[in-house]
Write a structure and sequence with these properties.
Number of domains: 4
Strand order of the largest sheet: 8-7-6-9-10-11-12
CATH architecture of the largest domain: 3-Layer(aba) Sandwich
Number of strands: 22
Strand content: 15-25%
Largest sheet: 7 strands, parallel
CATH superfamily of the largest domain: NAD(P)-binding Rossmann-like Domain
Distance between the termini: 51 Å
CATH class of the largest domain: Alpha Beta
Number of helices: 17
């Protein structure tokens, strides 16, 4: 019988489910050294947020097959160490969705009717009804930033309150949004139209300070902002300035950049409501995440695939050795496509040619989905959960296999929105070899300027001159064209970041039709 160690308090429903899967030991508040001493005898480890599952603990778990996290985040688990050991890490990402959505609605009502302020006033012995004239939410427009699990639940509840709902989410399809009777709009349009704005995106680099001073300036003076997602998505100093000046009417937050927030100036404002990161804290949510993670752990122990794995199962060594460089290539091609062409993704088409077509390409499909979506989600995307994540966002996947039609032994092509990028692996190095009809030879790593322009004298030279004036060094250059004096594509590898002001100037070069700045593998760039 499998042995399961529960190292943090867990609701009884979860414990009961685990007992049906194995022998359960519950011991909380173990020091790392004690956990290292005890873990070798266990097949599974279940934690919440209190216990840190470090690499030494994982290394000591000689029998360990799965680590379960009763909740969403896995920051307290060394997932890389677990993956190296072939240990599955599972979580319970859906158990607290309703709780978070309901808390969002609670803050919306509190903002509309100044509930905390009125409560405090009465408890001070005051009875100043005129100070608390609120606003009805019926007929108002709710702007949802992020139409994922929580955002879509908020949208459903808002419709029940007779609100109009619009949403911004660059990786949700129109068809998916229509299921919730939500109109997809740009972020700027959402900010300008909404009476209430609620944030439900993950804290990834692309979303840090997503709502800053420029965004707050677009909102109505009567608008109110709610953040129950993550601290750091809303620029707190910009929000403080907007609330102080009356630029917006009010705001509420359950999350802060630093928690506890300490002497945060927002806490002194009368038009700001704060709660201590309790959106997911309901009795029902605690039961739900406990049972969900127990189901996941039980599935792994029974030899089945879990629904919510955050790392991928190991492939046979020889298969992994062949596929790993192609997976890296596919992820980079998809990320390059997303940065070059943008737009809403409703379908990802993947063509596998030659020797590659004879292998299990699930790892490559997962890599493509990751390249498209990873900057918009904090979910770890891998071969186990990639298709589910894509399906949840309304993204269709089309896979084609064929014999080689080119001079390459293996070729992968990523196609979205009528644009395609093809690549291969040459001597272990990933290469992009075609962008639409233009042949290229590009190692998809680093910083690039990619232009589409008229093939005429002066365009390339002017771009080089402007970059020189701004001390941006060109590492290499490729230029291709479809016909003399026709359309041309230029790829400039640059050593330095290119800011928005410089991009704006480059786009004004006569003959320039499109110019994009791309960073690939930016986590390692200085």
């Amino acid at each position: 019988m499998a042995k399961i160690l529960v190292a943090d308090p867990l609701a009884e429903d979860g414990l009961e489910r685990l007992r049906r899967a194995g022998e359960v030991t519950v011991v909380s508040k173990l020091a790392e050294s004690e956990l290292i001493r005890r873990i070798p005898e266990f097949d599974a480890l279940v934690v919440r947020s209190e216990t840190r599952v470090t690499a030494p603990i994982i290394e000591a778990g000689s029998k360990l097959r799965v680590v379960g996290r009763a909740g969403v985040g896995v920051d307290n688990i060394d997932v890389s160490a677990a993956t190296r050991r072939g240990i599955l890490v599972v979580n319970a990402p859906r158990g607290n969705i309703v709780a978070a959505a309901e808390h969002t609605m609670a803050l919306l009502f509190a903002l509309a009717r100044s509930v905390p302020q009125a409560d405090a006033s009465v408890k001070r012995g005051e009875w100043t009804r005129a100070n608390f004239v609120g606003t009805e939410i019926r007929g108002k427009t709710l702007g949802v930033i992020g139409l994922g699990n929580v955002g879509s639940e908020v949208a459903k509840r808002a419709h029940g309150l007779e609100m109009d709902v619009i949403a911004y989410d660059p990786v949700v399809s129109v068809e998916r949004a229509e299921l919730f009777n939500v109109a997809l709009v740009s972020l700027n349009e959402l900010l300008e139209r909404a009476d209430f704005v609620t944030v439900h995106v993950p804290l990834v680099d692309s979303n840090r300070n997503l709502v800053g001073a420029p965004e707050l300036a677009r909102m109505k003076p009567s608008a109110r902002l709610i953040n129950t997602a993550r601290g750091g998505i809303v620029d707190e100093m910009a929000l403080c300035a907007a609330l102080t000046s009356g630029r917006i009417a009010g705001a509420a937050a359950d999350v802060f950049e630093t928690e506890p927030p300490g002497e945060n100036p927002l806490l002194a404002l009368p038009n700001f409501i704060a709660t201590p990161h309790i959106a997911a804290s309901t009795a029902e949510a605690q039961v739900s995440v406990a049972f969900d993670v127990a189901e996941e752990v039980a599935a792994v122990l029974a030899g089945d695939l879990p629904r919510f794995a955050v790392n991928a199962p190991a492939l046979p060594p020889e298969e992994l050795a062949f596929l790993r460089p192609f997976a890296g290539l596919t992820e980079r091609l998809a990320a390059l496509h997303t940065q070059l062409f943008g737009g809403r993704v409703s379908m990802i088409e993947l063509d596998f040619e030659g020797e590659l077509a004879e292998h299990d390409v699930n790892l490559l499909i997962a890599a493509a989905i990751k390249g498209v979506l990873q900057t918009y989600t904090e979910e770890r995307i891998n071969a186990v959960n990639a298709r589910l994540i894509a399906a949840n966002r309304g993204i269709k996947l089309v896979e084609r296999r064929s014999r080689s039609h080119s001079s390459y032994a293996s070729l992968v092509t990523v196609r979205m929105q009528e644009h395609d990028i093809a690549g291969t692996v040459l001597m272990g190095e990933p290469r992009a070899v075609r962008i639409d009809s233009f042949r290229v030879d590009l190692v998809p790593e680093g910083r690039f300027l990619v232009s589409r322009h008229e093939d005429r004298p002066g365009v390339v030279g002017k771009v080089g001159s402007i970059l020189g004036e701004h001390d941006v060094n060109i590492a290499s250059m490729q230029v291709g064209r479809d016909a003399p004096r026709g359309n041309a594509m230029m790829i400039l590898a640059v050593d330095d970041r290119v800011g928005s002001d410089l991009l704006g100037r480059l786009r004004e070069v006569p003959g320039m039709s499109d110019l994009r700045y791309v960073e690939l593998g930016s986590e390692s760039l200085p």
